[in-house]
């Protein structure tokens, strides 16, 4: 596309914007771009829209942020019309919701499914991106928006012998659409993160015997899920604006009651009472009990010990309970899990918990799995082993910015962004909930809406002033990366071997990827940057950009 073409001018075979991914982020981005009068196309690898909720169909999959909050806020009509049936919606219901959104806003005509974007290359002469797909599409676009998801690149560890297994294998993040019937089978689940914790109680009900291979025990809080009462739904309809505003002003964009008190400010009895009350409420409420849980080890220990005592109380066999107790990292520094009957499931006779740290998995065999201690005969293996989080989907695309430098190379020592939205050297390329933004540490739908709104505002600004490119400056990026690291360093988060620091992917640089400074603080920073004419970004007219 020549550089004298303004945003909004349509050329044959070219778009104002290409969006990669049709989850919560891609769908809303398309809607906003349409509202600006821009032409856009989404490319989506899956055969349907929904992203996370299209792929993760394992039994028990549901949100752990309450449905009323884990939904779009941008359309009052949508929010008034849609009725959630449970406090935490199940995967099929969320997928129905996202399909409803796509149809309601007539988005599907601009979405090309079953198409994986393989490369995106910036042309410095024409100031546009060339996007290539595995279907042979080759299109150009002024802007490229990566809505590729933080948790969309499923990871099966490189177990020796994996290809020899004669039974069936599944990854929770690529679950078969027709479902899986484990009745009468000996099933192995590898992993005990959120996906495992949600699926294990359900798989255990079907399998003749379930073997759970646990490397690191996890903290999990009871969901207390149930039907959404008409009173709660009605209250939300009436007060939705206030609730949404409160969430936007909260550290994690969540409506949990966040206490200002420190754990040491109260007596041990009062502390216990506070934890107990929040445990009873269910979900993330417990984490808001004291202001210093994630920054002070002693405060954190009180919360961790409370949860450990609950686990001991739920599991009948003290030896099994002992194995399930998380001990070697502070609570909440690995993503906290929210469950329905997880710990109680270990009271069944037909489940065995294997400590895969003491006795590591050595190889997958044709008939099952061998640890350093024993052979297990299995009909099916479920890999609940997580994702190459935050950078995986982006680095799987050959994204070339200025001077042909790839994003993968630029991020070889860890991701570098300005505000998690843009990367120096990659003009007109936006990353929704990219590393360096609160993203996975917050209610993701709120985080997505905030980014999409910001990007839409930025594109409107460029058009008004006839700028051809926007690009993070190296200085702004350096400062932001330093700030992200500094804030993380003031918390207990870097102490855990979590996917937040890439510890689940062998060889991945250890960098704390999301921004832990708080959603509200971050949002304010983004708004200020925009109000100051996109401070920290270089905005160029066509001619300037070409000679950059
Ligand atoms: P995604 O939904 O991941 O969508 C990205 C899409 O991009 C995918 O469909 C993918 O196929 C596509 N894509 C990627 N690369 C390419 C490519 N090269 N070409 C074409 N298409 C591509 N967050 C919460 O806040 N609360 C929750 O309760 C919650 N529950 C979760 C439960 C599970 C099981 C998982 C895995 C995550 C959960 N999350 C939750 C995080 C969740 O990922 C986000 O809330 C949200 O759904 C992300 O939306 P997205 O559009 O950014 O990304
Ligand atoms: P995860 O949290 O990364 O858990 C992966 C599990 O697999 C961990 O227990 C890990 O052990 C284990 N594992 C990985 N490689 C292994 C190996 N080689 N040998 C043995 N064990 C291995 O992944 P996830 O459960 O899919 O969840 C990812 C994120 O998605 C969550 O943190 C959450 O943000 C989101 N999610 C949310 C929900 C929800 O409740 N709404 C549900 C699912 C997912 P280690 O801990 O020792 O690495």
In one word, what is the shape? globular
What proportion of the residues form beta strands (DSSP E)? 15-25%
In the predicted model, the low-confidence regions spanning at least 5 consecutive residues are 1-12
User: Termini distance?
Assistant: 17 Å
Entry keywords:
single chain; 548 residues; alpha/beta; eight-stranded mixed sheet; five-stranded parallel sheet; 16 helices; 17% strand; globular; disordered N terminus; binds flavin-adenine dinucleotide; binds NADP nicotinamide-adenine-dinucleotide phosphate
Structure explained in plain terms:
The chain is globular. The relative contact order is 0.14. Helix 1 (24-35) links the parallel strand 1 (14-20) and strand 2 (40-43). 32% of the residues lie in helices and 17% in strands. The two termini are 17 Å apart. With 548 residues, the chain is α/β, with parallel strands linked by helices. The structure holds flavin-adenine dinucleotide and NADP nicotinamide-adenine-dinucleotide phosphate. Residues 20-26, 43-46, 51-52, 54, 56, 61, 63-65, 70, 116-117, 147-152, 195, 393, 397, 432-433, 443-444, 448 line the site of flavin-adenine dinucleotide.
């Amino acid at each position: 596309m020549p550089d004298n073409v303004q945003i909004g001018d349509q050329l044959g075979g070219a778009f104002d914007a290409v969006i990669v991914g049709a989850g919560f982020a891609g769908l809303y981005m398309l809607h906003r771009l349409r509202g600006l009068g821009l032409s856009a196309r989404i490319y989506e690898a899956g055969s349907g829209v929904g992203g996370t909720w299209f792929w993760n169909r394992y039994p028990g999959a549901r949100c752990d942020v309450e449905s009323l909050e884990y939904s779009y806020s941008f359309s009052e009509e949508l929010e008034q019309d849609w009725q959630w049936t449970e406090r935490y919606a199940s995967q099929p219901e969320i997928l129905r919701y996202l399909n409803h959104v796509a149809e309601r806003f007539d988005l599907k005509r601009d979405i090309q499914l079953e198409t994986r974007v393989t490369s995106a290359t910036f042309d410095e002469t024409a100031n546009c991106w060339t996007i290539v797909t595995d279907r042979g599409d080759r299109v150009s676009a002024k802007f490229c928006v990566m809505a590729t998801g933080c948790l969309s690149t499923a990871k099966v560890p490189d177990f020796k012998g994996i290809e020899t297994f004669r039974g069936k294998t599944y990854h929770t993040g690529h679950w078969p659409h027709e479902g899986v019937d484990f009745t009468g089978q000996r099933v192995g689940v590898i992993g005990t993160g959120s996906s495992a914790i949600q699926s294990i109680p359900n798989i255990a009900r079907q399998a003749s015997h379930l073997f759970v291979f646990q490397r690191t025990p996890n903290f999990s809080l009871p969901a207390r899920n149930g039907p959404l009462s008409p009173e709660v739904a009605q209250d939300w309809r009436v007060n939705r604006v206030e609730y949404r505003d409160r969430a936007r002003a909260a550290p994690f964009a969540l409506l949990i009651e966040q206490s200002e008190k420190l754990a040491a400010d109260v007596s041990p009895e009062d502390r216990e009472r506070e934890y107990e009350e929040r445990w009873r409420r269910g979900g993330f409420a417990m984490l808001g009990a004291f202001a210093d849980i994630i920054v002070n080890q002693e405060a954190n220990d009180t919360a961790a010990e409370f949860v450990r005592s609950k686990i001991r109380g739920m599991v009948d066999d003290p030896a099994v309970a002992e194995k399930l107790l998380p001990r070697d990292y502070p609570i909440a520094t690995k993503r906290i899990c929210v469950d329905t009957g997880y710990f109680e499931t270990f009271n069944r006779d037909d489940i065995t918990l294997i400590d895969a740290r003491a006795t590591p998995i050595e190889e997958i065999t044709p008939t099952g799995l061998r640890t350093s201690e024993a052979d297990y005969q299995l009909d099916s293996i479920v890999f609940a082993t997580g994702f190459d989080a935050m950078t995986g989907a982006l680095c799987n695309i050959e994204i070339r910015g200025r001077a042909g430098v790839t994003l993968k190379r630029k991020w070889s020592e860890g991701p570098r962004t300005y505000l998690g939205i843009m990367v120096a050297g990659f003009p007109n390329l936006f990353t929704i909930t990219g590393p360096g933004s609160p993203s996975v540490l917050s209610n993701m739908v709120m985080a997505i809406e905030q980014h999409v709104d910001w990007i839409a505002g930025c594109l409107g600004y460029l058009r008004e002033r006839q700028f051809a490119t926007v690009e993070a400056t190296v200085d702004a990026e350096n400062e932001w990366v330093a700030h992200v690291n500094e804030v993380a360093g003031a918390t207990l988060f870097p102490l855990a071997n979590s996917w937040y620091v890439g510890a689940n992917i062998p060889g991945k640089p250890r960098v704390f990827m999301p921004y832990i400074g708080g959603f509200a603080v971050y949002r304010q920073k983004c708004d200020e940057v925009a109000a100051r004419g996109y401070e920290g970004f270089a905005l160029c007219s066509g001619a300037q950009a070409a000679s950059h």
